[in-house]
């Protein structure tokens, strides 16, 4: 199994493992809260941090414009980054354990591309659109987009899972994932030809990744869906632990492997589908966060890993959101550029560190 | 098939109270192949098995490669459905036991190489508590105590805080055995646990398994290729021969009946029933007279046998060549190219031309 870094530099801990984990989780929670406030405070019109906190706790700010900025623009963006970061990180944890593959994540195995395909189908089919271009469509339209994205994600996920029964090598499976992703992207390209040019352009903008395009009506759909996915993941921590040694061991420990796999698949499809529907396919967060969290915690135990990954995913997504809007400027960098710039080195370091990764041997 | 192991199956009433190990009734193992027309055909690998592994005994499953040992073990632990017949674990029918209830009775160590990731040894062994923990999987103090006990039982107590990924092969097999023990089973099945181990680790693990069976009253079934060690240590042997018959009995029963020799003899390999070991089968090209003390003689015989020479009986007229021990490791060779040699290495090179 190559789910986890095989040769982590983590030597015998001097601190008791329980206390170390608690410290990591508390630090992540504090960091996430700080970044959350900071993300709201910065932008083209900076808002003082004290005023942000005041608005967040329900009072009015000194300047009424600040209240509007915080409530209508910045808070949705920060909430989006927080939940999508947590969603992608947890989806990554589930996929890495499910596939017993260190390089599995929604983006690398083409699941995000599948979600894009679902979104594109809705865009072309109904003229309705997701994320930044859901504007005129409320209620069912948004639910429809999330549903289409989740179905697209689930279809690719099921296909890759089927193929992973025959393909044991982590790297081969990854290449297959990339191929499936390319195929899905090609289908999207064909579909875009038949859509109106301005829709196609919006779709391309969407596919660069963006936390700032969600509105409150979007959040009313996204938060419950992602919340359900995160809850599913938390409740399946015991099952995922049993899967750490492989499906046969899990079965002999009394686990219903098929049901566990279905639950993890469903949760991953919901998480990756909802995240992609509103923010576009976002690279590397799902891949890098689980590895970083495991090393920080010093364990692969999902009962610690899943909650800590949620926090770490939210923390890094907020950091990327901050970086994508350099303070004091109006320019917005594509989110995927930021996540790839920090995610690609993580993967390279991981591959160099792990002998198994280099040899392409898994399970 | 020696039938000394099986008890009459009539006294089921008094069997309920004590752990009675593992038994099969008319078991057939193999694979269901699905044909294109939707009707499944069964391909039995082994069939008609009435075997019993008793509590407190180490039962070893032996057989040549491809004989169906793994298929049998995977069926016994419920990973493969049986084609016919039943498996009883402690008196309960395996097919009618819920997965969790089964996991509390039966634990396995598989051949799969596991990647423990960042789990510590204690966490890895703690995974075995899965069938005993509640919905969240939280380990109680009692669970932790069982994990510590299981690590101590396999002599891995000192490894508890080490990262499992850093263990040697032998240590990892011990820890995986501890994980199985942490399930608090009545029956433990191990599929070739000694396969990747060096000789001292093999002996240590095999002896450990027998001690676990004896001391904890467990039923332990192990498949292995390590024939000589198994025949020395096992309390009972299930031997799959080339015709896919399964012979059961004490090692000595199977050696006496010739089943071991039948199953494993090959062109160059001969089983010696007296010593219970295998030797190279080779016809000697000549006999050599030997003069050496008793403590050197066996080694000298070995060295000569490797060169295709046998030791001549006293007064054998055909033996016109002689090896004489001169003390130290010096030998005098009498015959063509006769010389004095100073080691077994020089000896074997010199006699190669005889």
UniProtKB/TrEMBL annotation, chain A:
The chain crosses the membrane at residues 22-41, 75-95, 107-131, 143-163, 170-194, 214-235, 263-284, 304-323, 335-353. One of its GO terms (molecular function) is transmembrane transporter activity. Its main location: membrane. The keyword Oxidoreductase does not apply. InterPro entries: ABC_BtuC-like, ABC_transptr_permease_BtuC. It is a multi-pass membrane protein. GO terms for cellular component: plasma membrane. SUPFAM superfamilies: ABC transporter involved in vitamin B12 uptake, BtuC (SSF81345). Keywords: Cell membrane, Membrane, Transmembrane, Transmembrane helix, Transport. The keyword Transmembrane helix applies. CDD domains: TM_ABC_iron-siderophores_like (cd06550). It is found in: Cell membrane. Pfam families: FecCD. GO terms for biological process: siderophore-iron import into cell. PANTHER family: FERRIC ENTEROBACTIN TRANSPORT SYSTEM PERMEASE PROTEIN, TRANSPORT SYSTEM PERMEASE PROTEIN. Belongs to the binding-protein-dependent transport system permease family. FecCD subfamily. This is Iron ABC transporter. It comes from Streptomyces purpureus.
Automatic annotation (TrEMBL), chain B:
Residues 31-267 form the ABC transporter domain. InterPro entries: AAA+_ATPase, ABC_transporter-like_ATP-bd, P-loop_NTPase. GO terms for molecular function: ATP binding; ATP hydrolysis activity. It holds the Pfam family ABC_tran. Gene3D superfamilies: P-loop containing nucleotide triphosphate hydrolases. PROSITE patterns: ABC_TRANSPORTER_2. It comes from the Bacteria. This is ATP-binding protein.
């Amino acid at each position: 199994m190559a789910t986890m870094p095989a040769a982590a530099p983590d030597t015998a801990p001097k601190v008791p493992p329980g206390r170390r984990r608690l410290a990591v989780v508390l630090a992540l929670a504090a960091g996430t809260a700080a970044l959350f406030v900071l993300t709201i405070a910065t932008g083209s019109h900076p808002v003082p941090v004290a005023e942000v906190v005041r608005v967040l706790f329900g009072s009015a700010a000194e300047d009424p414009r600040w209240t509007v900025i915080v409530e209508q623009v910045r808070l949705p963006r920060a909430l989006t980054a927080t939940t999508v970061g947590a969603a992608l990180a947890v989806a990554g944890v589930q996929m890495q354990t499910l596939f017993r593959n260190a390089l599995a994540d929604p983006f690398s195995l083409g699941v995000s591309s599948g979600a894009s395909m679902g979104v594109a189908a809705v865009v072309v089919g109904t003229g309705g659109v997701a994320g930044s271009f859901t504007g005129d469509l409320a209620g069912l339209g948004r639910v429809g987009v999330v549903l289409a994205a989740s179905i697209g994600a689930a279809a690719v996920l099921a296909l890759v899972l089927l193929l992973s029964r025959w393909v044991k090598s982590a790297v081969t499976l990854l290449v297959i994932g990339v191929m499936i992703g390319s195929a899905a992207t090609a289908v999207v390209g064909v579909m875009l030809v038949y859509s109106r040019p301005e829709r196609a352009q919006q779709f391309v903008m969407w596919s660069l990744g963006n936390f700032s395009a969600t509105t409150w009506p979007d959040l009313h759909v996204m938060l419950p869906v992602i919340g359900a996915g995160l809850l599913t993941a938390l409740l399946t921590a015991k099952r995922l632990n049993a899967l750490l040694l492989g499906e046969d061991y899990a079965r002999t420990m009394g686990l219903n492997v098929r049901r566990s796999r279905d639950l993890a698949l469903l949760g991953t499809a919901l998480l990756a589908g909802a995240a992609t529907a509103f923010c576009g396919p976002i690279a590397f967060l799902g891949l890098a966060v689980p590895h970083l969290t495991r090393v920080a915690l010093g364990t692969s135990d999902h009962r610690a890993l899943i909650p800590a990954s949620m926090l770490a995913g939210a923390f890094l997504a907020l950091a990327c959101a901050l970086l994508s809007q350099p303070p004091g400027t109006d320019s917005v960098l594509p989110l995927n550029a930021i996540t790839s710039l920090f995610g690609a080195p993580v993967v390279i370091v991981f591959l160099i560190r792990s002998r198994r990764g280099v040899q392409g041997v898994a399970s | 098939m020696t039938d000394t192991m099986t008890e009459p199956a009539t006294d089921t009433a008094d069997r309920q109270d004590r752990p009675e190990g593992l038994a099969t009734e008319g078991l057939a193992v193999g694979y269901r192949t699905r044909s294109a027309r939707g009707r499944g055909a069964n391909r039995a690998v082994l069939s008609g098995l009435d075997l019993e592994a008793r509590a407190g005994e180490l039962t070893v499953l032996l057989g040549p490669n491809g004989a169906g040992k793994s298929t049998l073990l995977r069926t016994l632990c419920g990973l493969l459905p049986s084609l016919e017949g039943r498996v009883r674990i402690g008196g309960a029918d395996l097919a009618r036991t819920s997965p969790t209830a089964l996991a509390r009775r039966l634990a396995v160590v598989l051949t799969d190489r596991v990647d423990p990731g960042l789990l510590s040894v204690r966490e890895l062994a703690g995974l075995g508590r899965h069938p005993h923990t509640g919905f969240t999987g939280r380990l109680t103090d009692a669970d932790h105590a069982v994990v510590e006990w299981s690590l101590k039982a396999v002599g891995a107590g000192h490894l508890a805080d080490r990262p499992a990924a850093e263990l040697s092969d032998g240590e990892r097999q011990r820890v995986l055995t501890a994980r199985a023990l942490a399930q608090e089973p009545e029956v433990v099945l191990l599929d070739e646990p000694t396969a990747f181990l060096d000789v001292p680790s093999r002996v240590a693990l095999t002896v450990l398994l027998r001690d676990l069976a004896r001391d904890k009253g467990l039923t332990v079934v192990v498949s292995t290729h390590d024939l000589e060690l198994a025949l020395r240590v096992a309390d009972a042997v299930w031997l799959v021969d080339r015709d896919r018959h399964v012979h059961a009995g004490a090692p000595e029963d199977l050696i006496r009946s010739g089943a071991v020799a039948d199953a494993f003899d090959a062109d160059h390999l001969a089983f010696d029933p007296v010593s219970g070991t295998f030797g190279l089968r080779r016809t000697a090209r000549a006999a050599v007279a030997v003069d050496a003390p008793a403590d050197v003689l066996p080694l000298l015989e070995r060295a000569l046998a490797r060169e295709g020479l046998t030791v001549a009986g006293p007064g054998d007229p055909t033996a016109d060549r002689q090896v004489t021990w001169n003390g130290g490791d010096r030998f005098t060779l009498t015959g063509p190219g006769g010389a004095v040699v100073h080691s077994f290495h020089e000896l074997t090179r010199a006699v190669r031309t005889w």
